[in-house]
Amino acid sequence: MDTIKYGVIGLGWFGEKHCEALSGLPNVELHSLCTRTGSRLADVAERFGVAKTFTDYHEMLADPELEAVSITTMWDQHREPALAALEAGVHVFLEKPMASTLADCDAIVEAARAAKGHFMVGHICRFNPRYAAAKEAIAAGRIGRIVSMYARRNLPAWVGASVLDKIGPIIGDGVHDTDLMFWFSESKAVSAYA
């Protein structure tokens, strides 16, 4: 299998986690990094041995060697780098949630449909064996008809203190729970309230 030259746009906590995961994959070269803060860029690049660094994602996406990117900026800053990456023809993994407005989501979906590369929003729980087993059991009818679902997370205190205080529990984990509920039930939202 060929090695994929992969870049990460956005080097906050999630971006660093993407770097850790990507650097451990046998057929992935962590090829380039991009963030606006020069000191953070230098620190992460040194830690993961990445020579190509950028403070402008347009410059990064102009590199003809680049094949795929993770976009791990804050969700209200997803639209522009996602559109640029899709237009550049690279494969795109966009951290969840897709964007902060429906209009931005629609624009990203339209661009993804027109793009030559693959596109995925980071609904990673679908690939967790526990959730996949639940999906299979539900689809096979082994646990009956779903009439209601409820989600609760028991997270370590450090996650709440270091991650969720910046993004909130709905954005941090509620997005995963909502995605799983839609996936398990094969339904779409009709209404919502809080």
Task: Characterize the structure shown.
The protein has helices at 13-23, 38-48, 57-61, 79-88, 102-114, 129-139, 157-167, 169-185; strands at residues 4-9, 28-34, 52-54, 68-71, 91-94, 119-121. α4 (79-88) runs parallel beside α5 and α7 crosses α8 (169-185). The chain is built from 8 helices and 6 strands. The chain folds into 2 domains: 4-122, NAD(P)-binding Rossmann-like Domain (Rossmann fold), CATH 3.40.50.720; 129-185, no CATH class. The longest helix is centred in the C-terminal third of the chain and has 17 residues, at 169-185. The relative contact order is 0.11. With 194 residues, it is an alpha/beta fold.
Strand content: 5-15%
Number of strands: 6
Low-pLDDT windows of residues: none
Count of discrete structural domains: 2
Shape: globular
* Number of helical segments with 4 or more residues: 8
Compute the average pLDDT: 90
CATH superfamily of the largest domain: NAD(P)-binding Rossmann-like Domain
Helix and strand sequence: EHEHEHEHEHEHHH
- From the 3D coordinates, which CATH architecture of the largest domain would you assign? 3-Layer(aba) Sandwich
Give the helix proportion (percent range): 40-55%
CATH topology of the largest domain: Rossmann fold
